[in-house]
């Protein structure tokens, strides 16, 4: 299934005339700027070439009005339109993967005309996903997917899946395997594919799942509506709290520190390629913020 692409739409193009995207200077020294006027931004990722990709849900629950935006050296364009509720993003090789409601899409970024194909349909899962949310990947090309279940209702029913490059899908965790799994959201796999960090939106707990021993251990808690998770090379972990508009740091001793608050809804965060800056989509505010971590 393909979606019509508009790869050359420019800032203030006729299609986006009413959007009024604005760039607020954050720190020109690092070449990144905050962006406002986004359409319900949920997730963000920066590619090796410096381009930043943002998933925009637009109208939640309104199929077909979601899109992926690309920000390149201060210029913004719509990469692909016609998505449903795109959320988590991850890049594997030259491909961008997108968690879009109940399916996973893939965009080949090395193609001159981008299009989104269905990598995993809803029927490829053991049960139809309720709320596909975050994505992560290891160095072997395995994809990790969180289904946050009835995240807006009971706060239960979530699951975490692993998918090989050959699209072989397996269930890693759900509430039947471990009752602590309620509405898993942010995921972060290590390079070897042995450890998987995850945060639960309902409980606000950070866990580590050892894929070798199948053991789930609590690392820290108190993250409210835990959403995104990233880890710096120095071992510091950052977690966003969607419900309370906060971003936390968890150091190597598992000490939790609030580093910024005041967001309307801090969604799925990402580290920049230099490992020194945090990209924070403020979903309800329609903004992409940058936090200098140095």
Account of the 3D structure:
This protein is mainly beta and 294 residues long. The protein has a single domain, classed as Neuraminidase (6 Propeller), CATH 2.120.10.30. It is built from no helices and 25 strands. The chain has strands spanning 22-27, 32-36, 41-46, 52-56, 66-72, 75-83, 86-92, 95-100, 103-108, 116-120, 132-137, 143-147, 159-163, 169-174, 184-189, 195-200, 205-210, 215-221, 226-231, 237-241, 246-250, 256-261, 270-271, 277-282, 287-292. A hairpin with a 7-residue loop joins strand 9 (103-108) and strand 10. Residues 1-30 have low confidence and may be disordered.
Order of helices and strands: EEEEEEEEEEEEEEEEEEEEEEEEE
Chain-averaged pLDDT? 91
The dominant shape is globular
User: Helical proportion?
Assistant: under 10%
- Kindly estimate the percentage of residues that lie in beta strands according to DSSP: over 45%
Q: What quaternary form is this?
A: single chain
- The order of strands across the largest sheet is 1-2-25-24-23
How would a crystallographer describe the biggest sheet? 5 strands, antiparallel
The CATH class label is Mainly Beta
* Structural class assignment: mainly beta
The fourth-level CATH homologous superfamily is TolB, C-terminal domain
Describe the structure using short key phrases.
five-stranded antiparallel sheet, mainly beta, Neuraminidase, four-stranded antiparallel sheet, globular
Task: Detail the topology: elements first, then pairings.
Elements: E1 22-27, E2 32-36, E3 41-46, E4 52-56, E5 66-72, E6 75-83, E7 86-92, E8 95-100, E9 103-108, E10 116-120, E11 132-137, E12 143-147, E13 159-163, E14 169-174, E15 184-189, E16 195-200, E17 205-210, E18 215-221, E19 226-231, E20 237-241, E21 246-250, E22 256-261, E23 270-271, E24 277-282, E25 287-292
Antiparallel strand pairs: 1-2, 2-25, 3-4, 4-5, 5-6, 7-8, 8-9, 9-10, 11-12, 12-13, 13-14, 15-16, 16-17, 17-18, 19-20, 20-21, 21-22, 23-24, 24-25
